[in-house]
Write a structure and sequence with these properties.
The structure is a single chain. It contains ten helices and five strands; from the N terminus they run βββαββααααααααα. The protein is α+β, with helices and mostly antiparallel strands. The protein is globular.
């Protein structure tokens, strides 16, 4: 079991980070919250969740990385809910900060959860029912009392390309992603890439 990986940040996109540690490059799927927390840093430490899918024609081993233990705990709580897969959990954590998610669940705000692509009414209600008590008993809610600051500096890469790349890695068609991203940037050209992706997740069909 890998608890965390610490090393040089070799590559970074809004959906993936590559950490080089002891000569090995580890590719980890990340959320926008983690992306905001680590961009611009040379040395980083990500807490790891390992996902092994076996038994089919194509076995897969995927690493998910989180800037904090609290975000990883929320991710694990989300994927424990029936109907919430790895990608859906990552999109939820890309659409709102861990503190916001705790507040949404605690308040029973299923409308906010339904703004995340792929989360319908039944799944949103199931997340609230299943996790409302768990986030309190796990201590995550108390640890996240102070909301995270998502106003991180923008990377030098073009915002449009970064945002479209992130949406494509999350499973959306490149053409549809590009159309939505362009619309967002026309209205708000100064938005950083993570905010563009967050807005696109609510608009893309």
């Amino acid at each position: 079991m890998i608890e965390y990986i610490k090393g040089e940040l070799a590559e970074l996109t809004p959906a993936m980070a590559v950490i080089e540690a002891a000569g090995v490059g580890y590719a980890l799927n990340i959320s926008l919250n983690t992306y905001s927390a680590i961009q611009g840093k040379a040395q980083i430490k990500l807490f790891v969740h390992e996902a092994l899918v076996a038994g089919g024609r194509d076995d897969s081993f995927t690493l998910y990385g989180f800037a904090t233990r609290q975000e990883r705990e929320l991710y694990r709580l989300l994927i424990s809910v029936s109907g919430v897969g790895a990608n859906s959990a990552r999109m939820i954590l890309s659409g709102m900060s861990p503190a916001e998610l705790c507040n949404v669940i605690a308040a029973g705000d299923d409308k906010m959860l339904k703004t995340v692509k792929g989360i319908g009414a039944k799944t949103a209600q199931r997340i609230i029912v299943d996790l409302k008590d768990k986030i309190v008993s796990s201590g995550v809610a108390q640890e996240l009392a102070v909301p995270a600051n998502n106003n991180a500096p923008l990377l030098n890469s073009p915002v449009k390309d970064e945002a479209v790349g992130a949406l494509t890695m999350l499973g959306f068609a490149p053409a549809a992603s590009a159309k939505v991203v362009v619309e967002i940037l026309k209205e708000q050209p100064e938005l950083p890439v993570e905010q563009v992706v967050k807005a696109a997740l609510k608009m893309i069909k």
